[in-house]
Design goal:
The structure holds 2 protein chains of 2 kinds. By secondary structure, chain A is an all-alpha fold. Chain A contains 13 helices and no strands. The radius of gyration of chain A is 28 Å and the shape is elongated. The two termini of chain A are 51 Å apart. Chain B folds into 2 domains: 146 residues, no CATH class; 67 residues, no CATH class. Helices cover 56% and strands 9% of the residues of chain B. In chain B, the strands form 2 sheets. In chain B, strands 1-2 form a two-stranded antiparallel sheet. In chain B, strand 1 and strand 2 form a beta hairpin. The longest helix of chain B is centred in the N-terminal third of the chain and has 29 residues. Chain B is elongated, with a radius of gyration of 25 Å. Classes of the chains: A mainly alpha, B mainly alpha. At the A-B interface, helix 1, helix 3, helix 4, helix 9 and helix 12 of A face strand 2, helix 2, helix 4, helix 5 and helix 7 of B.
């Protein structure tokens, strides 16, 4: 069959299919395509595949083949659209997948925590023994701000507007840091390690400096409650990044690319969970931590939160229900 | 024909050709999205300044900044069939490597890992990864197993037209498919080539003819092979 005859024979089908695809492509995701898609879309798609193969085999013009390939790609995209319900999986994430995935990458979380705490402890000890060393980690402006924030004679001028503003800021800043810790793990894990060291050192320096100038109490009272979800989340994000990097360093019996893909997919529940933890942390940090309450209360609540977060991660999702979402 | 196609086998047993989008259209889409995000920032800032919500306004601003920075591409790609507004304008779309639309997880992964691709500035790492990869994938695409491909929703009948003419001819040699496609491709592109170039190309096929005659013969053959009425 010559090309022109072939085109004359099938062009009406292609135009009809193109019309259907236009309609499907304009539709928003919300409507469920499996029920809305025309019932004959699969049949039309199969016929198109057949016709495209014929056109190729018979050496029809490249422009016709390209046109059919474009149409095929479009119908393929509509036919094989997956629309998993996202909200219902959020429950599964909180109940099972997040704590399980965290435990699964325990090794990397351990390394990440060790680096973070190690950096913090080292810098804290150095700054505590030689107070001047704080200048190597913190610049003058940051120090001034810290001292002001935790000065004991601070007037309770913090308003609810400040609380709200800081809530927004913590969300933007902290989740951004977590995402960066994760993504920079792609560079063989070095990026994640760097961010862990940097943040640990900052925390250690700030803590030791405030201890040196006798402001330990307001500092620890402030930090202990939201530190539970926040520091945990940052360490977990670093652990996820390290896992990505490790897949590239030591892929085992697979290609590096395959190892990376598997690691990336497996760390995703951790990242989703980290987002939730940091949202909680931002809330606590903005609305609870700055409250002027007796230190014992604050330490008590803070300790309770640490126990809660760590036992959730250690025990959550254990049990007979072995299915994974 | 010089082009970049990645071919996958579909469940129908057909070869699906995915026309890969290179760095240039993707950078264009990114710039367009950057512009749109800038406009959104601006609109938001003005709206909040006018409304003057104080602390709540600042909170909304930070949260919006966070959403625009991290979630703008994720949400558009996951919810609008793999296209941010910029990608839609440039006719490119994110798909899995098997040609199916990218799912939520893949969109999150490829966009979170943007940070690594952006390093140290202006997507240098991503560009290098794309040029090294056989399928123009940046690091985020490699980890999420996604591709960016061209789709042209508007493409109707082929825009290439063989010049009109009465002469028809059929080949007097054992025709290969490559011969056939080259002749038809020449005829289809004829309107966009200069006369001298057309004749030069036709003479490559028929060196024994004069320039003019070679062109006429090539076009006649193409019409014959297409089966023009």
């Amino acid at each position: 069959m010559r090309q022109r005859r072939f085109e004359a024979l099938h062009r009406p089908e292609w135009e009809e299919l193109a019309r259907q695809l236009d309609a499907l492509e304009k539709r928003r995701r919300r409507s469920n395509s499996t029920t809305d898609a025309p019932a004959d879309l699969p049949r039309r798609h199969r016929r198109l595949c057949h016709q495209q193969a014929l056109a190729r085999e018979r050496g029809y013009s490249l422009s016709l083949i390209r046109e059919l390939e474009q149409l095929m790609l479009r119908s393929h995209r509509q036919l094989y659209r997956q629309q998993p319900p996202l909200w219902s999986r959020l429950g599964g994430l909180v109940r099972r997948d997040f704590p399980r995935s965290v435990r699964e990458q325990g090794r990397w979380n351990g390394v990440s925590a060790l680096v973070f705490i190690g950096a913090a402890a080292l810098v804290a000890v150095l700054v505590h023994s030689q107070p001047d060393m704080v200048h190597t980690v913190l610049d003058a402006k940051t120090m001034q701000q810290l001292e002001q924030n935790f000065s004991t004679e601070r007037s309770p001028d913090r308003t609810s507007a400040d609380d709200l503003r800081m809530f927004g800021f913590y969300i933007m800043n902290n989740i951004g840091v977590a995402f960066r810790s994760f993504a920079s793990g792609l560079f063989l894990g070095i990026g994640s390690l760097f961010i862990m060291v940097f943040n640990g050192a900052f925390l250690g320096a700030a803590g030791a400096h405030l201890v040196n100038i006798q402001q330990a109490q307001p500092f620890f009272g402030f930090i202990i409650a939201h530190g539970a979800p926040e520091l945990t989340a940052i360490v977990l994000a670093g652990g996820a990044g390290l896992r990505l990097g490790w897949a590239l360093v030591a892929p085992g019996q697979r290609r590096r690319l395959d190892a990376l893909r598997e690691a990336a997919i497996k760390t995703l529940p951790v990242i989703y969970g980290v987002i939730l933890l940091l949202l909680a942390a931002a809330f606590i940090e903005a609305f609870w931590s700055p409250r002027q309450l007796p230190l014992a209360w604050k330490l008590g609540v803070g300790a309770g939160l640490w126990v809660l977060v760590l036992s959730y991660l250690a025990l959550g999702g254990r049990g007979a229900d072995g299915e994974r979402g | 024909m010089i082009d970049e196609h990645h071919s996958v086998q579909t469940p129908e047993g057909a070869d699906l050709a995915l026309p890969l989008a290179g760095p240039l259209p993707r950078a264009g889409a990114w710039l367009l999205d950057l512009f749109i995000r800038g406009l959104l920032y601006l609109g938001l800032t003005i709206a909040l300044a006018v409304l003057g919500l104080g602390g709540l306004g600042m909170a909304l601003f930070f949260i919006a900044a966070f959403l625009l920075e991290w979630w703008y591409p994720v949400l558009f790609e996951a919810l609008r069939q793999g296209q941010t507004p910029g990608k839609r304008a440039l006719g490119i779309v994110v798909v899995h490597t098997d040609g199916t639309p990218a799912g939520f997880n893949a969109c999150v992964l490829r966009n979170l890992l943007r940070v690594a691709d952006f390093f140290p500035f202006a997507y240098l790492t991503g560009l290098i990864a794309m040029l090294c990869s056989s399928r123009f994938q940046r690091l985020g695409d490699l980890a999420a197993d996604t591709l960016v491909v061209h789709v042209h929703p508007g493409s109707g009948p082929a825009e290439m037209q063989v010049p009109d003419g009465d002469a028809r001819a059929l080949p007097d040699w054992p025709l290969t498919l490559a011969d056939q496609q080259s002749l038809i491709a020449l005829a289809e592109r004829a309107p966009r080539l200069t006369r001298a170039r057309r004749q030069e190309l036709a003479q490559q096929a028929f060196p024994e003819y004069e320039a003019e005659a070679a062109e006429r013969h090539a076009l006649a053959l193409a019409r014959g092979l297409l089966g023009e009425p």
